[in-house]
Amino acid sequence: MKPLIKTLPILPLAFVLGVFLSPVAAIAQEDLSSWSVEQLQEASDGGDANAMAYLASAYLDGVGVAPNPELAATWFMHAAEGGDSYGMAMTGYMYQHGIYYPADGAQAVLWYQRAADAGSRLGIGNLGYTYEAGIGVEVDPVKAVALYRQAADLGHANSQNNLGLAYRHGMGVEQSDADALHWFELASAQGHINATANLGYQYQFGLGVEQNSATAFTLYLRSAEAGGTLGWYNLASMYDLGDGTAENPKQAAYWYEKAAQNGDSLAMAYLGLLYLNGRGVAPDDVEAARLFQKSANMGDPAGMAYLGYMLENGYGMAQDLEAAKQYYTSAAEQGNEFAVESLQNLTEGE
Asked: Is residue 315 part of a domain?
């Protein structure tokens, strides 16, 4: 069987707004995390805005009570009206994501701004995201970075991660791998799972730090085992290639599968390669072709190139040289070396 060429692993790069933070981490007032829902309800009924925010969080996440977006929204609003900055920030969050309320960027910005004015690091950081993404405001990367920095200096882990990403990509700030590393380290030290994966990326490719595949692998694994999705593909590729760890096709297949189920088109392509070559899984040309097709449909050049290979050779599907040429061409136009070589060989053989 003709050998297939692997490309350099690429970590999906995204600015990720942190989802709901636990009250213990996010609320500056008294820690009521040990209170029961009944205790929180009693205190909330008595006008305790801090308890209201905790009670709202319980309803939002379904902790100790059935999830109830309406009651979550109601109690966050009551907390906000009672002066609780976390209630203000989370009311903005509910508007931003359309939880109970219709999605409304302008309302999200209004409540994030109120929370920021009250000193909420969550409100400041999430307000920064609205300026990055243009939610309810015009896109303004410089202002986004300024807000991320303000929240990051207050210890907000998600803003530290986003500030690291801004430095990595030169978004609203001069590009600096060293500064990216610094902020990822701070966020990772607080247990931010995406920052841990991003820190792994710095080590994998020697960005602002001496290249160290073993450290990268450890960080990717730590993030993945904590529930992070960002480094799944890179972790799989390290198992696949024996980079930073012993080669382990079964573990590669496991993490490629998880990444593929999460919509990672590149993971679909390389999981397909494992099925094609019978590495870590039973050989299955039909399953390989299915994965390549799914990846190609998402516009991934690796998926297109390998689908072209299947069509050229009639593996897992009917042979179709014209379709193979079309997929090779599309992948080659995006710089896929395997497609370039395969297209040349197919054309020369005509």
From this structure: yes
> Which two three-digit tokens encode residue 58?
């319980």
* Residue 255: pLDDT over 80: yes
pLDDT at 225 over 80: yes
Residue 169 confidence class, pLDDT cut points 50, 70, 90? very high
Of 321, 319, 325, 317, the closest CA to residue 343 belongs to: 325
Q: Quick one: 249 and 344 in the same domain? A: yes
- Give the pLDDT confidence of 39-86 residue by residue, as tens digits: 999 999 999 999 999 999 999 999 999 999 999 999 999 999 999 999
Is 347 inside any structural domain? yes
Segments forming the whole domain that contains residue 146: 140-229
* Domain count for the chain: 3
Give strand ranges (E) for 202-341: none
Q: Cβ atoms within 10 A of the Cβ of 167, count?
A: 24
CATH number of the domain where residue 69 is located: 1.25.40.10
- The Cα 22–Cα 30 span in angstroms is 13
CA distance 260 to 98: 27
Say if residue 170 is in the same domain as residue 244: no
The secondary structure element, H or E, covering residue 28 is: none
Q: Quote the CA–CA distance of 203 and 106 in Å, as a whole number.
A: 39
First vs last C-alpha separation in the chain = 20
Contact in structure between 275 and 281 (CB atoms under 8 Å): yes
**Residue 14 DSSP SS3:** coil
Are the beta carbons of 132 and 162 closer than 8 angstroms? Answer: yes
Q: Which residues contact 46 (CB under 8 A, 6 or more apart)?
A: none
